[in-house]
Amino acid sequence: MNKIAITQSASQQALWFLAVGASAALVHFLILISVVNFTTVSPAWANVVAFLIAFIVSFFGHFYLTFSQSNSSTDKHSSNNDDYDCNNGSNDDYIKNRRTSVNKAPSSWRHSLPILLKWFASSLLGFIANQSLFVLGLSWFGERYYIIIWLVVTGVITVMTFALGKLWAFKS
What we know:
This protein is an all-alpha fold. It contains 7 helices and no strands.
């Protein structure tokens, strides 16, 4: 693969990571706000519930979109797929290939379990760091600032989870 293709692939992967991460963060945030506003659950416990639900969005998004190229790189390079050229693939080919990999997913669940477990471990580590900083922020500034605290902490932890996902959980 040439240098331009590697850069394009890394750029696309970063964009997918941001899109999936933003979607999971939005789900997390909306669940957090809903649980706090419509129940008597504290923001700290609502954050746990929100994390577990957002994890599902995060895993499937990163598995099928962000890191799917590294998961199935041997399939793409070894197959005779006329729709996708690893060296000269356009963005349309890239998206089409993503759809194709989603259609092949059910047969690969047995092989995906270790990836799921690694991503859960990465996400759990990120969440423990997130929750620790979140609770610390709540104790310093008070629960009325939970939204701002959550936004700042989530931004800080994002870099860590990307590195864990790319370098460990989804590494083929």
